[in-house]
C-alpha cells in the first residue's frame, strides 16, 4: 500500500539523518582526542582516598589550607567561611566582617594564608586584609589596577594576573600593600602565542615552601616557575605534546568583543603546588591508557619543579557523575572538590620523599632559568 | 467536505514550516559571525563549523521554497522531516554525550531550554509526518490518476 511506502521512506530518512549526525559527532570527537604519543607512569598507589564529606552545595571553593586546617569559601555567600580539619571531621563556619558594607561585589573571593586572610575582587578592584584571630577585614584603599587572578605571597604582597595596557594581553604582576598599594608587572613571564588573552589563560598558584609563583597554562604543555621578584626561574614542560595553544579566537565586530571560535584543546585543567611538587590535572589521554578509566576518574600528573622532571601519575575518582574540579595540596594530603563533596587523598610518603619534613630553605633550586625553545 | 479540512490542515502545516525555516534562517544570517562562533563551540560540529554555518540557513530557505511550490511540496515535507530529525538527534547527542552544552539557535528559540527545544522539535517532526500522510492520502500532486479518499 501507499501508506507502507510512506512509512518506509520516513524510516529511511530517520535512520539516515540520525546516522549522519552521529557520524559527524564521532568524527569531531575523534579529531579532538587523538593526541596520545606520550606515556604516563602509574606506580603502585602514590595516593589513596582517605576521607570524603558531603558539603550539600557545590558552591564551595578552597580558600586556603595550612596547619591542618582547610578553609572553604562559598561563591554564593562570599562572607561565609567554612573551616575543616584535614580528617574532615571537625567543621565550623565563620562569618567574615568588613569595615564597609556597601560595595557592589561581583565575585568576591577569600584567600587564607595564616595568620592573615584576604578578600579580593579584581573587577572593582578591591582588596581587604585581616587577621584570622578576629576575622575582621580592613579595606585597602586605592588599588591601582584591575586584575583577573590574585594569590597572596605574604602578608603584604599579592601575586596578580592582569591585562596589560601595553600589549593588551595577560600579564603577571604583584601588588604590594605596604603604605600605598603599588603594582609591578612583568611582561617576560606569560608568552603570547595567539591573542595573548585566551591562549595564556591558566592557573596561578603560590608555592610558599619554595617561595615561587607557579603558573600552569590551560592550553599548552607548559608551566612557569617565577621568583617573588617576578623574574623567571624556569619554564617547565608537562608530558603531553601540545606545545602550541590550539585556540581560535573570533571577534564579533558589532559587539566589540572576542570569544573562542572553537572549543580550545584543554591540556591542563587545574593545578596545585606544594613542596617540590606540582600536581596537574591533565585532559589528554596518554598511550596505553584505558579510556574507560577516564570516564570515572581524573588523572593527576606529578612533577618535581625543583628537578624539572615528571614523576608519576595517579587517579582521583569521580563521585556520582561529578569530576574533580579544583584541588589543593597540604603536606601529605591532596584535597579535592568534586561536585558537592570535598575529598582527601593520602599521599604515600615513600613516593613523595620528605617534602613536608624539610624546611623551605633547604630546597635549593638546581635549575637556573633554563628556557625551553 | 472531508478533504477540504485536510487540505487546510496541510496548508497550515506547510505554513508553520515555512515560518519556522524562514525565521530561523534570517535570524541566523542577521548575526552570522556570532552564529558561526556558536557552531564552532558545539562539540558535534567543531570541525565543520565553516560550511555548516552557510549550509543550514541556505537549506532552510530552499526547503521553504519547496513547500511553497506545489510540485515540490511532498519532497519538501520529506526534506523538512529529515532536517527536523537531524536537529532532534543533534539535541539528544548534545544533552547526553557531550561535556559542554552550547546554544546555536537564533532569535526567540534561544530562549527555550533544551528540553522545551526537544519537545518543540518533536512536535515539528510529528507535523511533518502528518503532512506527508495527508499528501499521500490526497495524492493530488504526485499521482493525480490514483485519487483515493480515506
Helix content of chain A: under 10%
Share in β-strands of chain B: under 5%
Largest chain-chain contact?
A-B, 31 and 31 residues
Which structural class should the secondary elements of chain A be placed in?
Answer: mainly beta
- The tally of domains of chain A stands at 1
What is the fold named in CATH at topology level of chain A? Neuraminidase
Poorly predicted runs of 5 or more residues of chain A: 357-373
Give a verbal description of the structure.
The complex is a heterodimer of chains A (373) and B (150). Chain A has 373 residues and is mainly β. Chain A contains two helices and 27 strands. Chain A has a single domain (36-362), classed as Neuraminidase. Chain A has helices at residues 2-32, 291-296, and strands at residues 47-54, 60-66, 69-74, 80-85, 91-95, 97-98, 109-113, 116-121, 126-131, 136-140, 149-154, 157-163, 170-176, 182-186, 202-207, 212-217, 222-227, 232-237, 249-252, 257-260, 268-274, 277-282, 297-304, 309-317, 324-330, 333-338, 341-347. Chain A has a five-stranded mixed beta sheet with strand order 6-10-9-8-7, with no helix packed on it. A four-stranded antiparallel beta sheet of chain A has the order 1-27-26-25, with no helix packed on it. In chain A, strand 25 and strand 26 form a beta hairpin. The longest helix of chain A is centred in the first third of the chain and has 31 residues, at 2-32. Chain A starts with a helix and ends in a 26-residue tail after the last strand. Residues 357-373 of chain A have low confidence and may be disordered. By secondary structure, chain B is mostly helical. Chain B has one domain. Chain B has helices at residues 2-30, 32-41, 49-68, 73-97, 114-138. Chain B is globular. Chains A and B meet through helix 1 of A and helix 2, helix 4 and helix 5 of B.
